[in-house]
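## retry 2 of 3
previous attempt timed out at serialization; input unchanged, resubmitting
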Amino acid sequence: MTRFMPVRAGTYQISSPFGQRGGGMHWGTDFAAQDGTKIYAAQAGTVVHIGRADGFGQWIVIDHPEEAGSGTTVYGHMWDAHATGLRQGEQVAAGQHIAFVGNNGESSGPHVHFEVHPTGDYRVTVDPMPEAKPARGGIAGASGYRYWTMSVTNLQEITDAVAAAGYKVRIPVMEIAPGTKISMVEDPDGNWVEFLDRD
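## retry succeeded, writing output
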């Protein structure tokens, strides 16, 4: 399973990355795009919050089942979160058009604020754009976890086998840079194991 970015390649610029900003923490990545640019669901799941939200003006929050990679994703600052007809409780597919970029709430220009919460816990947020960091594979925002990395050549097969064995896939297979993909799973002791596949 592959995670989609919230806007299509070539339609955005990163205007504010995940990390420290102005003396505080910016818990997501801002994708600057023209007002009205389509926003897409990163993974399949259920819409658990939609509509008005402090700071965002409007937001959409999607919970993802284990088979879709688990966790929660957040999309903020659209003018009208219901513009596509989306409603709370609805199921969405990975890559489904869910909203349009806006400039609502505490915003300095049209963009979508995108957050990834791999465990569904809003206190645990990872960088959705780890390829922007000069790190060796891995997810920079997950540094609070104990995890180690294994290089593999059959990433999807291994990830599927781990899931079939009953272990939690915390980060589904995703491309973090051209030719480099990862997934992360949780072992019985609560450690995260990162599988890294470089073409």
